[in-house]
Structures are given as structure tokens and as C-alpha cells.
Protein: GTPase Era
Amino acid sequence: MTTRAGFIALIGEPNAGKSTLTNAMVGAKVSIVTHKVQTTRARIRGVAMEGDSQLVFVDTPGLFKPRRRLDRAMVAAAWGGAADADVIVLLIEAHRGITEGVESILEGLKDLPRNRTVALAINKIDRVEAPALLALTQAMNERYEFARTFMISAEKGYGIEDLRHWLADEMPESPWLYPEDQIADLPMRMIAAEITREKLTLRLHQELPYQLTVETENWEERKDGSARIDQVIYVARDGHKGIVLGHKGETIKAISKAAREELTEFLGRPIHLFLQVKVRENWLEEAERYSEMGLDFRDGNA
Ligand SMILES: Nc1nc2c(ncn2[C@@H]2O[C@H](COP(=O)(O)OP(=O)(O)OP(=O)(O)O)[C@@H](O)[C@H]2O)c(=O)[nH]1
Ligand SMILES: [Mg+2]
Structure:
């Protein structure tokens, strides 16, 4: 039997639906999703099988004009993911069309090695009418030579099968890169931290989600099959700590409950989750925080 395997980088503007597509392809939630931009911070790999092909999806942080050190490190991680992949899929949002951000990603694509296969996936087609899609497909293909264009809805599952089959055929001959039953290659402690960060992002407003990070400090397996997980939420200011805790600790309690429930389901056993909020004014400039997130601190150098 000839087997195939390779890496597929999903790139696009923040909020394009890259993580939603990763999860849809894998058939499980390996990457967190929110309605807010800049949810994904590092490269997250999700593994899917299609016939004799193993597809390793590399979900990347969104591409945008970076301002802070963290932004720069995220954008560098995204382009790094693209440069290393066998196939790149550029996701754009059907209802937003060719934004300034999309234009600048197209410019960036021209700097990649010429032989790279790049496909276009127009996502969120559930939000527009068909004629608009045809015009958008044409306009995008005039700007860049895409190997194929797919029209999909990552959320509703439209067009996903087609894309998966095409990707499976594009993969190079190779032994499988992961055991057949593995769906992600993120350490569990990191997945657990991401789940808590998702709940924080969903619940907190404005800039706050961008100014915090979550780390799993301790993971203790218990004899009864349950596990105790201790996490720290780093915030940059005293005021932020108050907001995360909420009136009488109600906010943190709700976040903790939501995260614990998802972790319990994900792991299939009881989880005891303990969250602690720490003020660390300078965490956005600390190398250790970046390595915990799976980012390269030096990529953030201006
Ligand atoms: N209507 C619609 N919404 C979608 C679709 N795919 C994703 N979304 C929504 O778009 C939002 C962003 O999705 P994500 O998957 O987090 O987007 P992302 O590209 O990973 O975003 P970043 O990690 O911030 O770069 C979420 O609210 C999703 O539910 C789709 O096909 N249709
Ligand atoms: Mg994402």
C-alpha cells in the first residue's frame, strides 16, 4: 500500500474561520474558536485521515498588521507555518471579500517559494448569495494563481468533503507522520490552557482577552481516575484582575465551570480545575510566556 502524508497550512485574516475548519477536518475540537479576532496564538496541528492519506492541518494565528511584540511573534508563526507546508490554503470570508488585509496576504504569498501549491477557500458561504461568490472567485484568481478554488462553510460543513479529497490527492507519498488515532500534537497541558483562554475570551470584553495568557502549572493524576489541574491566568494590571474575578468572584467561577465541563468531556473523566489570577505587568515582554504559548520570543523583535 502506498501511503501519503503532509502538512497543510491554513492561513488568512483573523476570524476567517481557520480554527473552525481545522476542527471540522479533524472531527474534534483541537483548536479554540471565538467570534473575536486573534484567538489563535500559535501553530496548532490537527491530524485527519482520508483513505491512505494523512492530512496534518496546521492552524495558524491570523495574519494582520502587527503592533505589539506578541502580534509580531504570532504573525511570524503564521508565515512560518505556511513556509513549511506542502499545501497552503488561504481562507477568506465570502461576505467581506477582498479586504486590505487579504490584499496584503496576497503580496506575502508572492514571497514564498514558487513551487508551493496554494488553494483558495472562500469560507462562510452560508452568509452570501451565489452570484457574489462567482465574482469573488474570479477577482481572486486574477490576483493570484491558485491551484484550486473551494467554496465552503467550515461551520456548516459545506464543501469540506471536496476540499479534503483534493488535499488527500495532493499529499506527497510518505509514511504517516503520526499514529493513526492521534488527532492533535499539542501537549495536553497546553490544550487545557487554551480551553480556559477560550472561556475567558468569550466572557471578557474589549482589549482584556489580548492582555492575558493562561498556563497550566500543575497536573496531578488521581487514583480514582480523575485529575487535578492548576492553572494561572496572567494579567497585566491590577484592574484586570478585578474584572477577571468579577463581583464576589462570579466571573471567574463561571469561567472555571465552563472550562472544567469542556475539559471533563474532552478527557472523558472527572477534572478538578483550580484557577488563580496573577498580575504580572510585564508578561507580554517575557520570553518564558512565549515559549509556554508555543511562540518564538525573538520573532517579536521589532
Ligand atoms: N457564518 C459562518 N461563521 C463561521 C464559519 N466558519 C467560522 N465561522 C465563525 O467565525 C468566527 C471565527 O472563527 P475562527 O475559527 O475562530 O476563526 P480563525 O480564523 O481561527 O480566527 P483567529 O484565530 O482569530 O485568526 C467564529 O465565530 C466562527 O463560529 C462559517 O462557515 N460560517
Ligand atoms: Mg483561530
Summary: The two ends are 49 Å apart (CA to CA). The mean pLDDT is 96.
